[in-house]
From TrEMBL:
Family, similarity comment: Belongs to the class I-like SAM-binding methyltransferase superfamily. rRNA adenine N(6)-methyltransferase family.
Protein name: Ribosomal RNA adenine methylase transferase N-terminal domain-containing protein
Organism of this sequence: Streptomyces axinellae
Domain (Ribosomal RNA adenine methylase transferase N-terminal): residue spans on this chain: 21-181
CDD domains for this protein: AdoMet_MTases
Gene3D superfamilies, per the entry: Vaccinia Virus protein VP39
């Protein structure tokens, strides 16, 4: 187990120091394949065990002094880079993202990750409540709903605050992200779809039926209510009750005014729709 030097408060450095959690983390990464990109390697608590997987490993550490120390302790297959991940040019080729993310920068990093190309899987340690929200526990948040057609989020385990040094004020959560091999919507729909989700989550009304009717007035009310009934949803249910496939289906329903809106391969046909930028995600 590497000895941790004092973490820098302004960098939100809380180092993982629990052998059982580290083993679980590495086991999750071992189920993936391809080169590994570690975010925030610190003093190597995850880096050194990850090396034993025998895969190419690149570590991005914002604290350049720590990066230099860790570089002296890693093997030839590992590259340690002193850089801020939010400004680091991640590879466009397939790779696996891993990391114990600084709790105060989690949302910004997740936004960067979700927009980044290349990575196929992610194993991340984040704040417990953030992990729950991203995985849709208790209902999907807007950020999760906006990205669900392209990614799957899974909550793995709660990590107690005692597993970190220095000890943070909240627990952590192990979260896995997987890029869908077959997305629920074609990439060309992303901006329009995310704008639709934004309008639904910020729209007025009591229940999904009224909210969607206001957000997409072109959809016949009868068609919308029929769809809700077929999905075993009540008109008074909230947007957070929808699953990933239901969000994709509802978007298609509104995008085509109640028509089919599907191609033969089951994904949405590009509509060239406008909408605002896909960067409207919120926590």
């Amino acid at each position: 187990m590497p000895r941790h030097h004092e973490g820098r408060h302004e960098l939100g450095q809380n180092f993982l120091d629990d052998p059982a959690t580290i083993r679980t983390f590495v086991d999750l990464v071992a189920r993936t394949s391809g080169p590994i990109l570690e975010i925030g390697s610190g003093d190597g608590a995850l880096t050194l065990p990850l090396q034993r997987l025998g895969r190419t490993l690149t570590c991005v550490e914002i604290d350049r002094r720590r990066a230099a120390r860790l570089d002296r302790r890693t093997d030839a297959a590992t590259t340690v880079v002193g850089a801020d991940f939010l400004r680091y040019a991640a590879p466009r080729s397939p790779h696996v993202l891993v990391g114990n993310l600084p709790f105060h920068r989690t949302t910004a990093m997740l936004r960067r990750i979700l927009r980044a190309p290349g990575w196929t899987d992610g194993v991340l340690l984040v704040q417990w409540e953030v992990a729950r929200r991203r995985a849709g526990v208790g209902g999907a948040t807007m950020m999760t709903a906006q990205w669900w057609p392209w990614y799957d989020f899974t909550l793995v385990a709660r990590v107690p605050a005692a597993a970190f040094r220095p000890r943070p004020g909240v627990d952590g959560g192990l979260l896995t992200l997987t890029r869908r091999v077959e997305p629920l919507l074609a990439p060309a729909h992303r901006a329009a779809y995310q704008d639709f989700v934004h309008r639904v989550y910020t729209g007025r009304g009591r229940g999904i039926a009224r909210i969607v009717a206001a957000a997409a007035p072109g959809v016949p009310r009868r068609r919308l209510h029929t769809w809700l009934r077929d999905q075993n949803l009540r008109p008074t249910d909230l947007p957070k009750s929808l699953t990933a496939p239901q969000w994709a289906e509802l978007y298609l329903l509104t995008a085509t005014g109640g028509g089919e809106g599907r191609r033969g391969d089951g994904r949405a046909a590009p509509d060239g729709g406008g909408g605002r930028s896909g960067d409207v995600s919120r926590r």
